Amino acid sequence: MSFLFSAFKRSREVNSTDWDSKMGFWAPLVLSHSRRQGVVRLRLRDLQEAFQRKGSVPLGLATVLQDLLRRGELQRESDFMASVDSSWISWGVGVFLLKPLKWTLSNMLGDHKVPAEEVLVAVELLKEKAEEVYRLYQNSPLSSHPVVALSELSTLCAGSCPDERTFYLVLLQLQKEKRVTVLEQNGEKIVKFARGPHAKVSPVNDVDVGVYQLMQSEQLLSRKVESLSQEAERYKEEARRACRAGKKQLALRSLKAKQRTEKRIEALHAKLDTVQGILDRIYASQTDQMVFNAYQAGVGALKLSMKDVTVEKAESLVDQIQELCDTQDEVSQTLAGGVTNGLDFDSEELEKELDILLQDTTKEPSDLPYNPQETFYINSVPNTRISDAELEAELEKLSLSEGGLVPSRKSPKRQLEPTL
């Protein structure tokens, strides 16, 4: 740890390994610390306090910041604001910081040390914060129109930008990316956003100013109607209390005041409806314009894609495909015929030969030699086949006795035992 808290050598050539190892540790740590804190502005003094351990302060942080400035990862706040048109920023808000005279003299004399109080901007973190603010605006109700009051946008971004200076730096970054433009109108600053994430913002024109004024009028009328509604309710309550107290004249005056207030509310409602109707038509026309542009782009793309496609070419191509398919079918039929090698078979003769073979299989002669003992054995086996009539006759000859069924005598018609 003492090695990391020690100062850098005067030159990297003295010990490049020592220099690179400490720079590789502190440079990413400074940027990651700022990202975790959600800040884009950093000072040497703040970093020394943040990284202080047991009373020890890192002695090489100034060298680390100088190296980050040299690589373009950090930029002086004053230099960044001077690189963008920041004429709309008020001097009274304390955002544009003038470099003290000693800083200017040190730069002129060639001393590039970073003063402890000088504000530096993390370029990459500022780009990330600008993208976050742009997404926040796109997902808010303010995105219904590209022009919004700077005060309303500041309120919307209060959770993302920790202070006013960061908010102005973010706007300058968006202005540098040509995604917003800032204009002062009648003492009030308004911001115009680009219509798409990849589109460039156009200058504020009379239409934008007119729509913005209509939106402000709508908000003013809405607040006035709400205030008068509360006033009418208050007159009504006063009339009720006067009636309970028996003060009839006072109650009548309160009711008359209530009626006058309600008439004013009706008139304001009519004006508010007119303004809202105009705004609705403007929003609808903007949507129609977007759809028209999409149609126009689609037609252009379709024309470009079908530049060389005609009906005649399509018909010719279909005819060629059909001709090739017919040729392929003929080739397939020719190849399916096969090669017979000069042998032609008659199907009728083959069927006759098959019938002869089937007849021969029903008369399979025995190829074994004659055996007289086999004949004797066959003749000695009794014929066990008995007809149904003989079986019925045998059953009639059976009689029941007390001990069971007893056959009377053997039938002379059939000798069941073999005769030797």
Classify the helix fraction into a percent range: 55-70%
Instruction: Please state the overall shape, judged from the principal axes of the Cα atoms.
Output: extended
Order of strands side by side in the largest beta sheet?
1-3-2
Instruction: Please trace the helix and strand order, writing H or E for each element.
Output: HHEHHEHHEHEHHEEHHHHHHEE
Descriptive account of the structure:
The chain is mainly alpha-helical and 420 residues long. Among the domains are: 203 residues, no CATH class; 86 residues, Helix Hairpins. The chain is 60% helix and 7% strand. It has 15 helices and 8 strands. The strands form 3 sheets. A 3-stranded antiparallel sheet has the order 1-3-2. A 3-stranded antiparallel sheet has the order 4-6-5. Helix 7 crosses helix 9 and helix 10 runs antiparallel to helix 11. The longest helix is centred in the middle third of the chain and has 58 residues. It is extended, with a radius of gyration of 54 Å. The termini are far apart.
Provide the fold topology.
Layout lengths: L1 H4 L10 H22 L3 E2 L1 H7 L10 H11 L2 E3 H6 L18 H8 L11 E3 H16 L8 E3 H7 L7 H13 L3 E6 L2 E6 L12 H39 L3 H58 L5 H27 L9 H16 L9 H9 L7 H9 L1 E4 L2 E4 L13
Helix pairs in contact: 7-9, 10-11
Please sum up the structure shown:
The chain has 420 residues and is mainly alpha-helical. It is built from 15 helices and 8 strands.
Features:
7% strand; mainly alpha; three-stranded antiparallel β-sheet; Helix Hairpins; 420 residues; 15 helices; disordered C terminus; 60% helix; single chain
